[in-house]
Amino acid sequence: QVQLVESGGGLVQAGGSLRLSCVASEGTFRRYRMGWFRQAPGKEREFVAGISTSGGGTDYTDSVKGRFTISRDNAKNTVYLQMNSLKPEDTAIYYCAGDRDYDRTYDYWGQGTQVTVSS
Q1: How many CB atoms lie within 10 A of CB 74?
Q2: Please, is 61 exposed, middle or buried when counting C-beta atoms within 10 Å of its C-beta (0-12, 13-18, 19+)?
Q3: What are the backbone angles phi and psi of residue 104, rounded to the nearest 5°?
């Protein structure tokens, strides 16, 4: 079973940037659609961004379009989330996830990394 480990979270001022990374333990990673999700205190987990196996297809939730970019490097078993123009409402725990069957049901999850944006 593939394991996912996120890193790159932290505290940043509004308007700043962070890049999250998620490393997979196995090369089968390259066969999975990957996604980033987030969960803010008192809220449900929400989808943030997704990327196809090749990296050629991406999608985003409306609130991050134009500010966040998802990418992947299959040679490094890594998926990234570049976050620019951060806002306080982006504060959450961010999780990466793998969709093994390409049905938008995510089968593998990382432990999460905290992102805090101060105003």
Answers
A1: 15
A2: middle
A3: 65, 15
CB under 8 A, 24+ apart: contacts of 66-71: 70/34, 70/36
Residue type, position 55, single letter? G
Question: pLDDT (tens digit, 0 to 9) for every residue of the chain, 119 residues total?
Answer: 899 999 999 999 999 999 999 999 988 889 999 999 999 999 999 999 999 999 999 999 999 999 999 999 999 999 999 999 999 999 999 999 999 988 889 999 999 999 999 99
User: Are 93 and 116 contacting, i.e. CB atoms less than 8 angstroms apart?
Assistant: no
The candidate with the shortest Cα–Cα distance to 14, out of 91, 77, 102, 103, is 91
Decide: helix, strand or coil at residue 86: coil
Which residue carries 């944006």 as its tokens? 117
CA distance 85 to 54: 27
